[in-house]
Design brief:
The structure holds 2 protein chains of 2 kinds. By secondary structure, chain A is mainly α. Chain A has a domain at 14-81. Chain A has helices at residues 13-44, 48-54, 71-81, 94-98, 106-109, 116-126, 132-136. Chain A is rod-shaped, with a radius of gyration of 36 Å. Chain A starts with 12 loop residues before the first helix and ends in a 17-residue tail after the last helix. Chain B has a single domain, classed as Metallo-beta-lactamase, Chain A (4-Layer Sandwich). Classes of the chains: A mainly alpha, B alpha/beta. At the A-B interface, α2, α3, α4 and α6 of A face α2, α4, β6, α7 and β13 of B.
Amino acid sequence: MAETTAQVPSSTTSEKQAISAKAMERSKELKAKRDEINKSQENRGVDFNRVVENNPKTSDFPNSTKVKISRELSSLMEEKNSPKKPDYQVDDKAVERNTFKKPESVEAKTESTSDPFFQRLASLQTEEKPTAQDNLRGRIQLTPTTRNIDVVG
Amino acid sequence: MHVTILGSGTGIPSVERCSAGYLLETAKINYLIDCGTGVLRQLEKNRTSFSNLDAIFITHTHSDHIGDLTALVHACRLPDLPRTKPLHIYGPGDFIEFFTTIVQPVAKPPTSFPFFVEVAPHEWQRDGLKIKTCNTVHSDRMKSIAYRFENNAKSVVFSGDCDVDDEIIDLAVKTDLFICDCSTLAAGKIPGHLSAKEVGEIAQQAQVKHLVPSHFYPIEGPDSLRAEECAIHYKGTITLAQDFLKITV
């Protein structure tokens, strides 16, 4: 079987030093380039943490931050915003339909127990606490083991 | 002022109700109050582009109130977005930390127009509107606030998620429109949220002119039960929230 492992000659000390120096130089170049990029990004960008503290006026932003408007996108947005017609069917009767019509003389009927409306309300007051099934319907019940858990939404 | 309900739902996915989001418009401004999951698409369906928003007001950082915020910030980096006006995002006291740790790693803030992330002050003015906030009782793990917007002697209050507390009553006093967390009926009360009974009591105490219960968790029975329960305690006008419902004050 033929020998497949190549013998790599070991570098001399001077060669090693030359390679090291070249790597160092390259590393410095890259660092300088990276610093330059970071600096230009700092100037271009808005550091919101700084903004929060300083709360500068709009005029504080350099003109270079003004956006170049793409004609295609701009016209698309214009078309979208004018006329301002929603993408759903406008329901003019929604407010009227959703506005609660009080039953006549609510106060007078409050004492009544025969009215189904108040019977239903009374049953709500005495209803048992939510079950596990209720939790599935969206009711959040804090159990002793999860009482420190956050309420949801 | 015109209010469009973009999301009257909660964190529980629903065909009928998107997560929390409300659009407040005047002739001059487009404000978004909360940006829950799906709200960005609701805005588009309403033909109010995200690129035209002037400010976003976050009540707290539960996902059904901020779920689409990352998507919105990401969309703001769209190349050649036709926008030069500033965008302000306001939130409760812990909002900067939330933005830094949750939103920013996923969606870098836009650099092509002025972009601000701020903790909402207790009271301030912008765009000719007077804006007030108060802390609400909702979660032990995060801060939450409610907003009141006043313009031309009219006012709208957005409760965010809250439980019974004097501060929300004070903020809602004599408001023209009160859009209020009404998660459940009294029988299914969730701590940190208001039941319909409590919503009615708060609205009555605050002498609210028009009450819009919103943020509906599923309940047994029709949603009209919420209005009926509110009406026992509140004598004013009650309109149940519905996605894309528009109310002018």
